[in-house]
Amino acid sequence: xxxxxxxxxxxxxxxxxxxxxxxxxxxxxxxxxxxxxxxxxxxxxxxxxxxxxxxxxxxxxxxxxxxxxxxxxxxxxxxxxxxxxxxxxxxxxxxxxxxxxxxxxxxxxxxxxxxxxxxxxxxxxxxxxxxxxxxxxxxxxxxxxxxxxxxxxxxxxxxxxxxxxxxxxxxxxxxxxxxxxxxxxxxxxxx
Length: 191
Prior knowledge:
The protein has a four-stranded antiparallel beta sheet, with no helix packed on it. Strands 8-7-11-12 form a four-stranded antiparallel beta sheet, with no helix packed on it. It has a two-stranded antiparallel ribbon with strand order 1-2. By secondary structure, the protein is mainly β. It is built from two helices and twelve strands. Residues 25-61 are annotated as: Disordered.
């Protein structure tokens, strides 16, 4: 399998990490103690897609796949509520097509404070139809959206890890409509 991830202007091949992991492990053998464990980093709230995820596990089935312009997809992989009243959505923005795609500026929304901080997923909203409420991506005190920023383009077959943080709907809300400008709305189940 030849899967690559976009990392600060360069590419890193998962195939190398996967082949090293598979080569070091047999059905009845233990991994070598000298082998370094693979590392994962969590997305920063203010950084561009700089995180690298290396794992020999197959990716889990996404909770949602939202289709955007030019074949771009947003695959939501996790939705987490925390005790502070926030809902964090993590996933991957992917370009499964055979050509590079410039990401649309509309994804950041049109709020003046968000627009001045560059291309992001700041235009994302969650709509709770039963309570007739719309939840917007949270902003910090400087107006920066609490989402992945610095997005500009994706190469053919490439993807990048993304996140968005919202105020959490009530615990009784189990389903919302996820909306991102230039993407089709999609239903997202909440735990």
